[in-house]
Amino acid sequence: MLDKRKDYNIISGFTLLELIVVIAGLGILAGLAIFNFIKYLEFAQIDEAKSLLNSAAAECLQRYRNYPTNWASYQPEVLKTRSLPGNYTYKENLKTCNEIEIYDPASVNGTSLLPMLKFTLAGGKLIKESEFTNPESERDCKSWGNCGGSPSAQYLKTCFASKGTCETNLATALAGRDGALSVKAWTGSCTWPADPNCGCTRAVWACSNKAYFSQGEFDICLTAKASAACNARRASLAGQNPAFDGPDNSGTCPTVDYWCAGRMFADETGYQSCKAEQRTIACSAELNRRKTAPYTNGLFEKLGDGTGCTATYTCNGSEGSKDWYEKDSACKTTTPPPPPPPQKPWYCAYNPNQQNCQ
């Protein structure tokens, strides 16, 4: 029979060696877990950076559509309000819509897990590029686009830059000119594979600040422009007061227009006929004036401009020949009757003593 008193004195537990082994194992596991945790945090920073740049790219594309002349210097609002994740920083202050690039400075001398991320706007198209130094970042690099650089990205950027320069030069040459231009228009399209026919090689004509790419289209525009200018000139002359009289030698219209009494004539024959008609009308008006009291007695032969009217004599409201005039002694002796007295206001019948009623 065992002694029960000895059972209470038995001590159970781990030896020192067992404890050391267990603690060492836990340390190794913790080290691995912490390393992987840090790495996963860096991967999360890559995803956050991609999301940030995608938002910036959306802003830049919107800016390009709404403000096509000053989009390049615009900094997206999302980049102003949010800081870059982790060790990411801007390369050479590239943070406007013209070009945005972020990278980890540690990647220059090491193998940072954070790949370089970049995008450029060229001709309204978004071009993404990326580079990596750590093999584990290759998948993130490729998912962003043009990983390690690509001939297509470089070609597109160069092509769109050339097209932009060509279009700027053309816009400058168009201003205020009509005729064939010395500069050429852009030909081809910036697409991949590369178009060997792209370049500033297309002949262009300018008319009313607009480009035309054939002589026929240019001639149509020039004819319409000349016609519009001529019509505007004719409308201006037709609306003048006093009326414009004589030939229009301004050269605005292809032919010389003749104007008489607010009417336009295509040749001088019609113009002279109108002038004769106007002289006849003026003579008739003047003759009627002489035959209306107070009368003007005597020879009526010429008008103020020296042109001849039908010679006639007027006497006390009558008209006749020279013999008639000379035989009628009353025409030579009779003076024109005095003008009628001025009409008194109606109230003079009731107030005859008013000053203007005397």
Describe the 3D structure.
This protein has 358 residues and is an alpha+beta fold. It folds into four domains: 36-149; 160-213, no CATH class; 219-266, no CATH class; 291-333, no CATH class. The chain contains nine helices and 15 strands. The chain has helices spanning 4-7, 16-66, 77-81, 138-144, 151-174, 215-238, 268-290, 322-327, 329-333; strands at residues 89-96, 99-103, 116-122, 125-131, 179-180, 185-187, 199-202, 205-207, 210-212, 246-248, 257-260, 263-265, 298-302, 308-315, 318-320. A hairpin with a 2-residue loop joins strand 1 (89-96) and strand 2 (99-103). The longest helix has 51 residues, at 16-66. It is elongated.
Mean pLDDT comes to: 84
Helix content: 40-55%
Strand order, sheet with most strands: 1-2-3-4
Question: What order do the SSEs take from the amino end to the carboxyl end, as H and E?
Answer: HHHEEEEHHEEEEEHEEEHEEEHH
How does the helix and strand content classify structurally? alpha+beta
Our count of helices gives: 9
Number of strands: 15
- For the record, the count of structural domains works out to 4
Estimate the strand proportion. Answer: 15-25%
Radius of gyration: 51 Å
